[in-house]
Amino acid sequence: MGNRGPKGYDPVQITNSTSFNAFGKVEYASIFCSDDNYSVQRDETWRASSRGVCLVTRITATVRTPSGNIEAEPYTSSGTSFSRFAIIQVGVNKFQVTRVVSAGRRK
Fold it and tell me: Which pTM does this prediction carry?
């Protein structure tokens, strides 16, 4: 559930589940929300410092591989309050930013 209270949504967190380091940008729906640039090491999670009531519209990722920098397929939405995302490998030199659905957590 998180401790969002009346102040807005949980800050965005992006888990890098690939074997490589990655970087990218979290884009928000409102001009009053500044986009977050991030970089995340392999097997680690980046967390935004704050978020407020900003809806996420797009998350990009560039994965640094031995073959060079590879653009992941971005996560896009008309505007989501969801906060947990991951960078995953879906094929040879193919990556994707995806929503993480928490498994088995009871309300």
Answer: 0.88
